[in-house]
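Look over this today:
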Amino acid sequence: MTTSDYRKVFKQLKVKPVKLAKYKKHNKPKERKTGIAKHKCKRCGRNGGHISKYRLHICRHCFREIAEKIGFQRFN
């Protein structure tokens, strides 16, 4: 179950607080300590292709879009 699916049910269970609490307890995604799902891109939320060097914490796709704005130069 993805994070987005997990939160869609909140609208339906808003009027039933006991069931909502039970749902949150048993269905929330677990906190990741290692692996690919631990780091997400700050801009788009992707997991793969994560660049954490220089504390950027963005995916490679977003890096290509904003590299020149943040001061990186392209060498051929």
Summary: The first strand starts at residue 50 and ends at 51. The chain has two domains: 1-30, 38-71. The longest helix spans residues 17-27. Residues 38-71 form a domain with the 30s Ribosomal Protein S14; Chain N fold (CATH 4.10.830.10).
